[in-house]
Amino acid sequence: MTLEFFLNQHPRLTRSLKKFILDYEAQLDASTFAAFLMNLDEELTNNAAHFSSQATNEAKARALHQVVDKETSQDTDIPLSCQKGCSACCHMEVEVTSYEAEILKNLIQAGHPIDRERLKAQSQRSLQDPRWKQGPRNPESQCIFLKDNACSIYEHRPVMCRRHSVTSPAKNCETLDAPITLRYFPRVDLLISAANEDQNMQIGPMAKMLEMSLLK
């Protein structure tokens, strides 16, 4: 299997997984790399089929959340810095799927309180708006689900929040100037990429996706 064929078969890979594959191409001989791509193709196809077999859009999103949680909970010799109360990442631009937006919309419509004005303002930002780069220095970037410095929908949070974890000191995230070391799980990227193969699913910034979903 060639890289060109593989990428054509799987056009919605995460950026991290695509970089991981390209790095492997530089390290492996041609036949070993081709075998690697074949195995990866099978894994993506099988997991995509598992997610698509779920009965509802919400079930598809939750199936992904379940397997990603399992991967990220694996034991590690390096302790994580992320703890309840450190919320710098809750001021970043987060992408969600349209299926996850449905989950969040249902929570809001069931009575979960949010700041609708802040949601509307955030939804009007362009992709990668520089205001997101200010992190906690800009209180208007605070996630609408952040309450008392903790996630108020933790069990329902999007997959991009579930995968995010750092091993560098938590204070480094607050300043935005210090180096940050992310913990990386290649298989998590594989699982997200497999879920992304659903052509009926859209992906975009959380505020924009949620605002659109609430207006339907």
Q: Rounded to an integer, what's the Rg over CA atoms? A: 18 Å
Q: Ends: how far apart?
A: 43 Å
Query: How much of the polypeptide forms β-strand, as a percent range?
Result: under 5%
* Count of structural domains: 1
Kindly state the mean pLDDT as a whole number?
92
Strand arrangement across the biggest beta sheet: 1-4
Task: Supply the helix-strand structural class.
Answer: mainly alpha
**Model regions low in confidence, pLDDT < 50 over at least 5 residues:** none
Q: Please summarize the sheet with the most strands.
A: 2 strands, antiparallel
The helix fraction, in percent, is 40-55%
- N-to-C SSE string, H for helix and E for strand: HHHHEHHEEHHHEH
User: Globular, elongated, flat, extended or rod-shaped: what is the shape?
Assistant: globular
Number of E-type strands: 4
Please work out how many helical segments DSSP would assign. 10
